[in-house]
């Protein structure tokens, strides 16, 4: 009992000091706590140590254990408390050392104090070895007095003296020492036979302060003058994700994340503060551990970013405004995504395994006709054929459906269908995915290492689609000398995926329900088996016999050295590379109707390779004057070279399907092969200076000069500057003591960035082929088609940003708001030239566009106590886009309508980019309007379009802007709950104000009788149902309207239950006997529900492929799935 009481007493100073830092986490400084006790700072009186401890216990959830003689007759003066002003933790240690008191921490809320005159507690009587060393502050190298040094698993321990040195007798040199100090990290260091161990500890004040990765360095968030969003490791762990884009979705305001397809490996589309270009990429720049990834999209539309397993990522930062992105100059126009991967640990090996298995299914089915409905619609259409095509009907152009229903494979003797196939049920499946991630991280004081391997086996919800990926990464960092460190990392991923042919998705809609997948004899069935149908094969046959395999190998590596010249000056050199090899292999079978039967099989192989290398030298200088003036300066140089090559060979005419694409030489008809090669180089010089005055006034200036071989000889180099100011108002004297506002900062920035991601050689003249008739025969020639432009230069982004950061009630409420204006100038466009010039086009800088927006991010800690907590994150982004200028004010038509002719969308001055063009549909002509309909050569039952210009005709001149795919706003609402060892997170996503051109309607609603149709045709016009947007049914051959119009324009707004995760952390007392450090079990539901008016599979999918926007035009899209997942995370 006496020993236990004595052990309790050894821990009180740690309580004392940790409470101080706990209070800081709650927004109250150490000085304010101490000075609040008897107002020492004001009166200059002394306070007894016992009284101070009692007041702290009464105000905070902590307990101090000590004998009365430890604190008796001990007092603290205001002069001693002043030691806290320079370094809180170190000052407290000095006070307690001066009082001859030793401190020890029992748990998070219990501390023991004891007199230093007593011997260190020892759990053994046979002490054999003595360890000595020094403990210093990792920040400034100063010695740390009062650090507790303990032999792990025993009560043997001591503490460092006033010089930071210690001497400890240990049982063996195989033990592990635990170093702990209030306000600093706790470190465990294996002795490994050493007799001297010097270590450094990192202050929790630094660790607790958010450190943000920025371009070519890091900064404390409080010192940032730019707009930077962060997703940390805790957030990444809380939401199980397959790839980086999933991990990033909804976490940061101003960042819009979507998929172009729901199939495995579907290409992510990320837009930061809208779109800045109409002809170049709008993808952000991705940088992984300092290495710039291949910017160009790979085959299949994929991106190298998705080869990085989320489990190996430590943090993701998104740079949004010019102050943050200007350091990347010509590549910063679309924002920058910085990914920092996990590194080794200075402690012993730590092993972690994370594994999960999930099942996915389609979240929604499309309403299409069943067998009975299909046959009824066919009959109605036939009955209306004479109305719309009397001559053709009289001439026997149309066949009575009853006369076609005599195939015994499909109909019984009475003409009733034998089958009612639900093609969606046939195509979809419950897909199983399993993922495994294993990491081993460790090291010692000199060297750290990390090994990370992962495996992902993912089935698509559509049969025959899948993805398999192996990946691994190794990193090492070593301190060669006290002035030189070196390290590097290398990662490799090997991914193989089977993609589905676009016709597979189309036939999911159009395969008729009266035919089976296969007949009883095993032969394939299809639309062509029923007279009058289009000859497309059935959906399952396309999936099985049209093979598309995409193999990708991705290597990402870097080597770096850090040379420390002085405490203030450091040189970092890095060599990085990103190498990507791909091969797309395709084969369509000899008997596959419509696709390859006429060619007796088609095969192709398309290998490609890209090599990116970069060499960078960074010189960093930091200095601090009297804790008032702080300067951090960066000077850098970078050179990057990128080369790519690709080739393709296609053949057709096979004797059988055995070899597929593995032996092209046996085909009868080879097509001439093709090949390409590209190369470009960038040379850059950049600098950034951060200045802070008294932790209140912040100033950042950045500049970068980029030179690129992609641009004209007159504009190879460009300068991209930025400047930013910040004011931490909450640090002003007049704000001290404010119990409501705990943080208040305003910042503003302005700068220029560029977009250099154009195709190579665009400034040079381009060749093209021409045809001419000589002597009655066609001859092909080659001539100059594109005019050279030596003045070709970067697209420039000018961005202005004002930001506010506000923390209330000890930062339990945090708000971050940004208002920005982003103007894109010198946009690159192909300008048509007069035919008399002899050229077709010239690539010029001839346009401008603007994005204006507001971003809000609110975080609240609603409830926080020992057993239960509830926090909320809400963000919303509002962006307005407008095209300001085009050459000559002329429109640029893009994305032609699928069936209706004319442009599907348009770029026009004064409108948002990607504005959809079409007719205004007013419903259908009714019988009372027959005379007026006749004036437009229409009948009651036809679609009624608005005559916009009142010229008495419906033509291209009546097409007007009818919507756009750019959302008015989007965001997330995330709630996190914890109760004891349980945690629950609920992530709700929303988007509003965007339109979707659902072009599938052209094929599946407008045309009937030649394929299956949407269920909406059951609402077609009849004399008894005239108030409908769907035209009267008639055979396709009788003529029909199928144009882009407001009926096909869908509201793309939605609310989605994106992610719900419930987890349970196994209590430590259960794990410790099994030598398990942690064990977390979790269950996740993804895409649980979607509330939307959109009639297609998913409003977030875009199949338009538009380069300038997410497009949000859909034809036949691969649906996004609903997923239920179980997983575990275990650490040793």
From TrEMBL:
<dbReference type="InterPro" id="IPR023997">
    <property type="entry name" value="TonB-dep_OMP_SusC/RagA_CS"/>
</dbReference>
<keyword id="KW-0813">Transport</keyword>
<dbReference type="Pfam" id="PF07715">
    <property type="entry name" value="Plug"/>
</dbReference>
<dbReference type="InterPro" id="IPR023996">
    <property type="entry name" value="TonB-dep_OMP_SusC/RagA"/>
</dbReference>
<dbReference type="InterPro" id="IPR036942">
    <property type="entry name" value="Beta-barrel_TonB_sf"/>
</dbReference>
<comment type="similarity">
    <text>Belongs to the TonB-dependent receptor family.</text>
</comment>
<dbReference type="InterPro" id="IPR012910">
    <property type="entry name" value="Plug_dom"/>
</dbReference>
<keyword id="KW-0798">TonB box</keyword>
<dbReference type="InterPro" id="IPR000531">
    <property type="entry name" value="Beta-barrel_TonB"/>
</dbReference>
<keyword id="KW-0472">Membrane</keyword>
<feature type="domain" description="TonB-dependent receptor plug">
    <location>
        <begin position="221"/>
        <end position="336"/>
    </location>
</feature>
<protein>
    <submittedName>
        <fullName>TonB-linked outer membrane protein, SusC/RagA family</fullName>
    </submittedName>
</protein>
<keyword id="KW-0998">Cell outer membrane</keyword>
<dbReference type="GO" id="GO:0009279">
    <property type="term" value="C:cell outer membrane"/>
</dbReference>
<dbReference type="Pfam" id="PF00593">
    <property type="entry name" value="TonB_dep_Rec_b-barrel"/>
</dbReference>
<dbReference type="InterPro" id="IPR037066">
    <property type="entry name" value="Plug_dom_sf"/>
</dbReference>
<dbReference type="InterPro" id="IPR008969">
    <property type="entry name" value="CarboxyPept-like_regulatory"/>
</dbReference>
<feature type="domain" description="TonB-dependent receptor-like beta-barrel">
    <location>
        <begin position="550"/>
        <end position="926"/>
    </location>
</feature>
<dbReference type="Pfam" id="PF13715">
    <property type="entry name" value="CarbopepD_reg_2"/>
</dbReference>
<keyword id="KW-0812">Transmembrane</keyword>
<keyword id="KW-1134">Transmembrane beta strand</keyword>
<dbReference type="InterPro" id="IPR039426">
    <property type="entry name" value="TonB-dep_rcpt-like"/>
</dbReference>
């Amino acid at each position: 009992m006496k020993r236990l009481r004595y052990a309790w007493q050894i821990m009180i100073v740690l309580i004392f000091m940790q409470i101080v830092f706990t209070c800081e986490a709650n927004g109250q400084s150490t000085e304010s706590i101490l000075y609040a006790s008897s107002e020492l700072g004001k009166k200059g009186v002394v306070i007894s140590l016992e009284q101070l401890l009692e007041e702290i216990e009464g105000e905070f959830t902590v307990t101090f254990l000590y004998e009365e003689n430890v604190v008796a007759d001990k007092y603290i003066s205001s002069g001693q408390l002043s030691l806290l002003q320079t370094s809180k933790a170190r000052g407290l240690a000095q006070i307690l050392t001066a009082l001859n008191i030793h401190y020890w921490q029992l748990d998070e809320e219990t501390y023991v104090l004891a007199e230093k005159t007593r011997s260190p507690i020892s759990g053994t009587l046979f002490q054999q070895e003595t360890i000595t060393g020094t403990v210093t502050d990792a920040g400034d190298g100063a010695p740390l007095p009062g650090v507790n040094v303990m032999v792990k698993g025993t009560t043997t321990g001591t503490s460092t003296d006033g010089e930071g040195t210690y001497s400890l007798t240990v049982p063996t040199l195989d033990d592990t020492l635990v170093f702990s100090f209030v306000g600093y990290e706790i470190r465990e260091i294996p002795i490994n036979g050493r007799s001297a161990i010097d270590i450094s500890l990192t202050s929790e004040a630094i660790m607790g302060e958010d450190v943000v990765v920025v371009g070519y360095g890091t900064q404390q968030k409080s010192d940032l003058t730019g707009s930077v969003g962060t997703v940390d490791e805790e957030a990444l762990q809380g939401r199980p994700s397959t790839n980086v884009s999933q991990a990033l979705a909804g976490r940061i305001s101003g960042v819009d994340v979507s998929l172009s397809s729901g199939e495995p490996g579907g290409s992510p589309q990320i837009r930061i503060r809208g779109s800045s270009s109409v002809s170049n990429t709008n993808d952000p720049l991705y940088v992984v551990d300092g290495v710039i990834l291949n910017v160009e999209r790979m085959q299949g539309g994929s991106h190298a970013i998705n080869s990085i397993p989320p489990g190996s990522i430590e943090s993701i930062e998104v740079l949004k405004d010019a102050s943050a992105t200007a350091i990347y100059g010509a590549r910063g126009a679309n924002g920058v995504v910085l990914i920092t991967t996990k590194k080794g640990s200075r402690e012993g090996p730590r092993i972690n395994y994370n594994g999960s298995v999930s099942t996915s299914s389609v979240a929604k089915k499309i309403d299409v006709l069943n067998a009975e409905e299909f046959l009824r619609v066919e009959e109605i259409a036939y009955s209306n054929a004479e109305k719309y095509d009397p001559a053709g009907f009289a001439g026997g152009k149309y066949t009575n459906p009853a006369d076609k229903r005599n195939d015994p494979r499909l109909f019984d003797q009475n003409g009733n269908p034998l089958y009612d196939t639900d093609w969606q049920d046939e195509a979809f499946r419950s897909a199983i995915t399993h993922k495994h991630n294993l990491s081993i991280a460790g090291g010692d004081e000199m060297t750290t290492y990390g090994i990370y391997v992962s495996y992902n086996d993912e089935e698509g919800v559509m049969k025959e689609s899948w993805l398999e990926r192996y990946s691994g990464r190794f990193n090492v960092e070593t301190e060669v000398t006290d002035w030189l460190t070196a390290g590097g990392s290398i990662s490799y991923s090997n991914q193989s995926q089977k993609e589905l042919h676009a016709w597979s998705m189309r036939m999911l809609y159009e395969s008729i329900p009266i035919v089976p997948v296969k007949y009883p004899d095993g032969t394939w069935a299809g639309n062509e088996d029923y007279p009058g149908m289009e000859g497309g094969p059935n959906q399952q046959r396309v999936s099985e016999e049209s093979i598309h395999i995409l193999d990708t190998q991705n290597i990402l590596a870097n080597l770096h050295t850090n040379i420390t010249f002085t405490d203030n000056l450091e040189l970092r050199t890095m060599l990085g590379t990103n190498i990507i090899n791909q091969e797309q292999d395709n084969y369509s079978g000899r008997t596959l109707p419509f696709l390859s039967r006429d060619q007796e099989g088609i095969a192709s192989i398309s290998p490609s390779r890209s090599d990116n290398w970069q060499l960078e030298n960074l010189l960093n200088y930091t200095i601090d004057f009297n804790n008032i003036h702080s300067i951090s300066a960066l000077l850098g140089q970078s050179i990057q070279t990128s080369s790519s090559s690709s080739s393709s060979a296609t053949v057709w005419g096979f004797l059988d399907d055995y070899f597929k694409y593995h032996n092209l030489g046996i085909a009868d008809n080879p097509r001439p092969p093709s090949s390409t090669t590209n190369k470009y180089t960038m040379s850059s010089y950049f600098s950034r200076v951060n200045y802070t005055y008294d932790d209140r006034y912040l100033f950042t200036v950045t500049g970068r000069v980029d030179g690129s071989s992609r641009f004209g000889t007159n504009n190879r180099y460009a300068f991209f500057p930025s400047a930013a100011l910040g004011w931490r108002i909450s640090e002003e004297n007049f704000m001290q003591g404010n119990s409501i506002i705990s943080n208040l900062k305003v910042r503003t920035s302005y700068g220029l960035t560029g977009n250099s991601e154009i195709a190579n050689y665009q400034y040079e003249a381009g060749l093209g082929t021409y045809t001419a008739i000589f002597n009655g025969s066609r001859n092909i020639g080659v001539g100059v088609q594109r005019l050279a432009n030596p003045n070709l230069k970067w697209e420039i982004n000018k961005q202005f940003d004002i930001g506010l950061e506000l923390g209330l009630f000890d930062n339990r409420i945090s708000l971050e708001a940004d208002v920005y204006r982003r103007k894109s100038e010198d946009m690159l466009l192909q300008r048509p030239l007069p035919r008399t010039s002899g050229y077709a086009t010239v690539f010029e800088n001839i346009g401008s566009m603007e994005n204006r927006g507001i971003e809000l991010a609110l975080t609240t800690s609603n409830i926080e106590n020992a057993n239960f907590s509830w926090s909320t994150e809400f963000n919303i982004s509002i962006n307005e886009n407008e095209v300001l200028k085009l050459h000559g004010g002329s429109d640029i038509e893009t994305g032609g309508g699928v069936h209706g002719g004319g442009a599907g969308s348009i770029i026009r001055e004064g409108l948002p980019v990607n504005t959809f063009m079409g007719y205004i549909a007013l419903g259908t002509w009714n019988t009372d309007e027959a005379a007026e309909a006749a004036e437009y050569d229409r009948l009651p039952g036809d679609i009624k379009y608005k005559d916009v210009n009142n010229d008495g005709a419906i033509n291209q001149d009546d097409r007007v802007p009818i919507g756009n795919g750019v959302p008015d706003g989007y965001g997330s609402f995330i709630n996190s709950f914890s109760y004891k060892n349980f945690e629950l997170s609920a992530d709700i996503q929303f988007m509003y104000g965007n339109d979707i051109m659902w072009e599938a309607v052209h094929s599946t609603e407008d045309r009937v009788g030649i394929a299956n149709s949407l269920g909406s045709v059951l609402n077609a016009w009849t004399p008894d149902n005239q108030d409908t947007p769907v035209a009267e049914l008639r055979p396709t051959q009788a003529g029909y309207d199928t144009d882009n119009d407001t009926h096909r324009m869908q509201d793309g707004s939605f609310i989605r239950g994106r992610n719900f995760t419930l987890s349970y952390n196994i209590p430590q007392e259960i794990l410790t006997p099994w030598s398990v450090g942690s064990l977390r079990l979790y269950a996740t539901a993804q895409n649980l529900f979607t509330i939307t008016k959109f009639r297609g599979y998913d409003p977030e999918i875009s199949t338009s492929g538009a380069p300038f926007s997410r497009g949000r035009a859909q034809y036949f899209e691969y649906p996004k799935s609903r997923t239920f997942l179980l997983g575990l995370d275990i650490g040793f």
